[in-house]
Amino acid sequence: MEKASGLRKWIRRGLIALAVLAVIGLIVVAWIPKPVEVEASEVSRGPLVVTVNEDGRTRVKDRYTVSAPITGNLARLDLEAGDAIEQGQLLARLVPLPPPLLDARTRAEAKARVDAAMAARRQAQAAVNRARYQRDFAKEESERALAVVEKGGLARSDADRAVSTYRGSEEELRSAEFGARVAEHQLKLAQTTLIQLSGKGEEGEQLEIISPVAGQVLKVFQESEGVVQSGTPILEVGDPGALEIVVDVLSQDATRIPAGAPTSIERWGGKNPLHGHVRVVEPSAFTKLSALGVEEQRVNVIIDLDDERELWSSLGDGYRVEARISVWEGKDVLRVPASAVFRSEDAWATFVVEEGTAVVRAVKLGETNGLETEVLSGLEEGDLVIAYPSDSVRDGVSVEAR
Length: 402
Known about the structure:
By secondary structure, the protein is of the alpha+beta class. Helix content is about 30%, strand content about 40%.
């Protein structure tokens, strides 16, 4: 009996001891710091493209504002914005007003306008000849470069630049020919005006204003019949098939954009992005207020489309687009997420996961596109870095990757 009672006593003491040990163990476990859950990313090699992303708008390259050459009574226009026109098509009619049309000063001004138009035509023809020579030279250079590429004596990128230069010279020739047609039209218009002012026309004769180019009516400034002064804009015409894109960028970004930089045109309304290249970065900046009311110095960048007209035929004048202009490209660079690096004193650093512990490591960075950053030194391919380090992550803290 006494043995059974003693056994129960020892069992009870043992159970109490086990309970105390369990409580102590729970307390110890509760006080042991838990690893901080983090999102880790592996350092890898691959391509990295740095772009300048801004909104832009389309613009007809060669537009012509048709103005009243003399003061007269404008007949009501039959054309509306969007109407297709042919070169030489009648656009408007002006009925002369006798008092101002017979004025000697007006006749002298008309003669001077004829002389100026003849000089402008000679200048435009010289520009056409110069552009045609540059086009022919660029064509020979591109054909020569492609031939050398096929023999393996030249890099493909050099040949692509030669082809791009040839395409640009074709656009310049087209623009110069457009200017020559406009100059010829202005000369004919000035000569017609002088003939009528000299009294050689029949009474009741009308001055017909014809289109200098084929294209579309872009804007109509004077819809109703009425008296217009000399130089009053009547309508604006142009060829919507020759579009360019104007993108205004920050001046500090403009310094990094070279002529010929490849560009991707997105959110223009089509399913696939369009391809283009920078034709020119304008040398003069302008001040513009940002959405936050801050004054910014911005620069216009002019972009030409490289895709065929059929792919962007739905684009018109003044349409909004988004442009991604490539300013730097690396084909095999060491990359980390841009969110993984931070400033530590006077240098850049990142948290590297080593055996479950966060370790601060100084790094030297190169280019960045906002999402990924080039690492020049301090990391190796395959290292595990913390992509989004929180305030709980410090040097030496235990971490656990999600």
